[in-house]
Amino acid sequence: MKSFDYVQASQPADALRLIGAAPSSRFIAGGTNLVDLIKYEVENPGTLVDISQLPLTKIEKTATGIRIGALARNSDVAANKLIASQFPLLSEALLAGASPQLRNMATMGGNLLQRTRCNYFYDPSQPCNKRAPGSGCGAIGGYNRIHAILGASPQCIATNPSDMNVALSALDAVVQISGPNGNRSVPVIDFHRLPGDTPQKDSVLEPDELIVAIDLPTPKNAGKSHYLKVRDRASYAFAIISVAARLAVDGGVIREARLALGGVAHKPWRLVAVENQLIGKPATDATFQAAARQLLAGAQPHEHNAFKIKLAQSAIVRALQTVA
Amino acid sequence: MAKKLIGDPIDRIDGTQKVTGSARYSADVKRPGLVHGVLVMSTVANGTIQTLDTTETLRLPGILAVMSHTNAPKLGGMDKNKSGETASDRVLHVFQDNLVHYNNQPIAMVIADTFEQAVEGASLVRVTYATEPVKPGLPTSTDKPLTPPRLPRVDDQVDTTRGDVKKGMAGAASTLEATYKTPTQFHNALEPHAVLSFWEGDKLTMYTTTQGISGYQKRVAELFGMPKENVRVITQYLGGGFGSKGTTFSQAMLGPMAAKLVGKPVKLVLKREHMFGMVGSRSATVQTMNVGATADGQLTAMTHDTLAQTSAFDEFMEPAGTITRMLYACPNLATTHKFIKANVGSTSPMRAPGEAPGVFALECAIDEMADKLKIDPLQFRLKNYAEEDPHRNRPFSSKSLRECYQQGADQFGWSKRAKQPRATRDGNYLVGMGMATTVYPVNRGESTAMVRLNTDGTVRLETGTQDLGTGTFTIMNQLAAEVLGLSPDQVTLGAGDSKYPEAVGSGGSRTTVTTGSAVTQAAQEVLKKAKKMAYSDKKSPLYAVAEAEIEAKNGRLESKSDPKKGESFTSLLKRNGNKPIEATTLSKSGAEKETHSMSAFGAIFVEVRVDEALGEVRISRMLGNIAAGKIVNAKTAKSQILGGMVWGVSMALHEYAALDTRNARIMNPNLAEYHVPVNADIRDIDAIFIDEADETVNPAGVKGIGEIGIVGTVSAIANAIYHATGKRHYDLPITVEKLIG
Asked: Which domain of life is it from (chain B) (predicted)?
């Protein structure tokens, strides 16, 4: 690994100033992903700006819902009573991820920015447009079992590995960002991006911006929710497919629906049109199967991941059955 | 303190050091002036190195040298670098030429003052290659299979036939042909391979990670072309090996070569991703089974044809067919072994080499045949029970498989198993039960042990064995203590260092069998001398008592019929010159090797829950019933069986090398993507030993237990999945995509 400088910020304004001051700087909080990436020589930061001491760890009620500080630990959020009672979907997704040791370190903001597990991204001897723009995509035509079936591009078929992001997407969460030019709010559904021609950009966050909080708006109609994760082993494995489902059913009829898929695309996969079509429909297997087909419409498999199409549809139906 | 008996569940003697972190593993050892080596690996699978540019590396601070084929010390014994007759001698890559035979092969080493500098330096070495087309491994290879010159165990024939297979098949009411595939697997001991090497003149010392100190010492000396007395090898603690530290692989030479080059002690620790190629692998296999049986369930014929892979430069053959030769009383049988050569790192022994993939094929085929004949799979096995070894035509030294079947079936509730597959459902889960026979041969090598009875009544035991983490050091003391009627804590052990008497490598479940026997025999020799001293000494209460009438108990020699008549070792020795009694014994197989067949046997029972829509399989219950001679330590022995069974789960459901076939590069070389099971994958797991006394097998009366746990577990799981779902799986591992298919 390359030698790097290390500085610590005590307030968000310091952090923004420090990140702007040195080129090739990276924020570090829990370090559960970044340290690995440095060891693998995927990331080679010149300076690490430690933000772990910033006062951004609170979980508090707001007029419209709950605000979670960007530096709240995944384990603390999962165990928080407000979250567990009002947004159990988030607790479930957080607890489905990683291991207790990692969740004790990982922060909410860091998890939002968790990078792909694409095998080629992690191997600097191999081409990867996300790691080294213009070098090509090793996964296309290579080993691509864990890769995207939706929303990919000829430049990149990586997936977003986070469980939390899938739940946040289904919860209509909003990311609060501070930057050199002030603050802005971005819905999670727009925060992560599809790879297109610039797969090196996982999200719309600019390098000199800092995530300060995540807002969870109280849903009109909470209904029931479930996070379903399919993985190769029972714990400590990334999702092959995951589903964050939220359904409000009244008298057998669907009143509100949210459906986000993980493990299939460069971002949590949500189609608002499919959710809207569910409204007013009976909460039956036929309805769920139709939604599953629509959500996977246009899926493009690669050599090793065609099974994900059928698996994703089964997982969607199962998740919806669970919350119906 | 109460005397601890043989078989007691005694805590391991190094347990406290290990759990408190005070145990110094080889990578933890420090030395004044120590510098660090980091390997540079090839990124192509076949070709030659054209240029190796170290300009940027050498510009960094702290870099001492970049060792490659351009400047590596030449090795005097390089002509010995060939495929050996034993499984542990493999061809090494020690920078003597510019050839690349597989992707992720070591091609250079950066040596620097700090580890971090060496890592950065390694990332800046620029290499160009002239590449050749990649020769792929299994199952894609279309190369003509070759017959290997030998199997790893020299006694095993490559191909065998008995009876008349054609006739046997013709006489069968039912026949079955099935092809089974197993993937390349990597050992992945938790502790990475490490070696700290330093030279003092022409004397070399290595703190290293080896399963075989004595073999390692010889091999390193041989390749350097120097006497083995000049090489000292020390391995005080090992964090597992599973075979990958049994073979002396390239790092064993590269470390001391670098130390020679820079004239300083060099520490070389492999990164996890380096452990996917240069330190061996379990070969992928394609195995075809043919089975014929009469309507009432007598096997009439079997064939087992194994195709495995080996590297472009070596000749290791995964011996998958050897158990098929001896497990069932089948009169007509043929087995063959062939391999293809491919651009892969050397294949090599990995926990139950041959037996694990081979018995997967065999026991799945047996299960399928039983199902075809509508006979309970356990009954089918009993119908074909081999009372004698049908391959060697010899009696077994002991075989308690029938008892394992019976007790296992009772404890597991086998009688409650549904007759039909796909008959038990619990919510979203299909539930199934499967079983398989497990077996592992007794392999015995040669070991020497020294036992010294001190005048204070304590015992010093010395033998150049190593402790893989299995508890070897603990049970060696127990064995010596048992013979001399002492408590194990009265024995101190010198081991893990080549300065002690030569002992066998810890592979093939050989250690307790071989070194344990040497310890037992040396202790028996000491006891004999002590008894003689007593019955020859007029001042001893045991004067003129018959030797057979004297026994050792609680630090004393006493008369069996009159225990009050006797004296302590201390008083006996004090009176007789106040000198210790010592014996050094070389132990090896005797006539039993020619007169008997020797194996441990067992039965594995598994219950699985399969969520077919989501492709999930979880082990809800798993039980191993094992008969393996005398069990020296109930605690460490049980851990061996449980660990082996977990390995079986891993092989059945998880492990495989994810290969990019374009460049034969392994794309999951880390423990996040190369999966082994976690606790949550297995709910209930238990192992029970069946009492078995065997006075023929060896002086210690033990059979190896390090590998038998995995052997039958793989097929028991596949058979349970069949019983749950009604679908057979022939291709490991059985992952999500295969279960939803």
From this structure: Bacteria
Backbone angles phi, psi at B450, to 5 degrees: -115, 130
Of B654, B659, B740, the CB nearest to A233: B654
pLDDT digits (tens, 9 = 90+) for B614-632: 999 999 999 999 999 999 9
- Alpha-carbon gap, residue B91 to B100, rounded angstroms: 13
Cβ pair B313, B91 in contact under 8 A: yes
Q: How far apart are CA A53 and CA A7, in angstroms?
A: 11
Rounded (5°) CA angle B440-B446-B448? 130
Candidates A1, A311, A317; nearest CB to B736: A311
Closest residue to B119, CB basis, from A1, A310, A315 = A1
The total of structural domains in chain A comes to 2
Identify the H or E element spanning B437: strand B429-441
pLDDT for B468-499, tens place per residue? Answer: 999 999 999 999 999 999 999 999 999 999 99
Stretch A211-240: mean pLDDT: 96
Question: Residue B382 burial by CB count (10 A; 0-12/13-18/19+): exposed, middle or buried?
Answer: middle
Q: Return the pLDDT at B84.
A: 78
In angstroms, the separation between the Cα of residue A313 and the nearest Cα of chain B is 9
B408 within 8 A of B401, measured Cβ to Cβ: no
Predicted confidence (pLDDT) at residue B2 exceeds the cutoff of 70: no
pLDDT per residue as tens digits for the range B224-250: 999 999 999 999 999 999 999 999 999
Per-residue confidence (pLDDT) for residue B219, from 0 to 100: 96
Ordered domains of chain B (ranges, CATH): 31-133+190-240+245-275 (3.30.365.10), 285-443+594-740 (3.30.365.10), 445-588 (3.30.365.10)
Specify the pLDDT at position B633: 96
At residue A222, the pLDDT reads 83
Angle at A143 between CA A137 and CA A146, to 5 degrees: 95
**Within-domain flag for A187:** no
Mutate to test the interface with B, among A233, A240, A304, A321 (most CBs of B within 10 A): A233
pLDDT, tens digit (0-9, with 9 covering 90-100), for B561-582: 999 999 999 999 999 999 999 9
What distance in Å separates the CA atoms of residue B210 and residue B218, rounded to the nearest whole number?
13
Backbone angles phi, psi at B202, to 5 degrees: -100, 15
Mutate to test the interface with A, among B184, B614, B649, B735 (most CBs of A within 10 A): B614
Q: Is B695 a catalytic residue?
A: no
Assigned token pair, B89: 């001698």
- Of the candidates B682, B692, B620, B600, the one whose C-alpha atom is nearest the C-alpha of residue B645 is B682
Tokens (6 digits) for B707:
């590998």
Short-list B547, B161, B693, CA closest to B391:
B161
User: Is the bond into B357 cis (omega within 30 degrees of 0)?
Assistant: no
Size of interface A-B (CB pairs under 8 A): 81
The answer to whether residue A315 sits within a structural domain is yes
pLDDT of residue B1: 39
| Tokens read off for B241 | 């090996």
ipTM above 0.90, yes or no: yes
Helix axes B213-224, B251-262, angle to 10 degrees: 50
Separation between Cα atoms, residue B503 and residue B523, nearest integer Å: 16
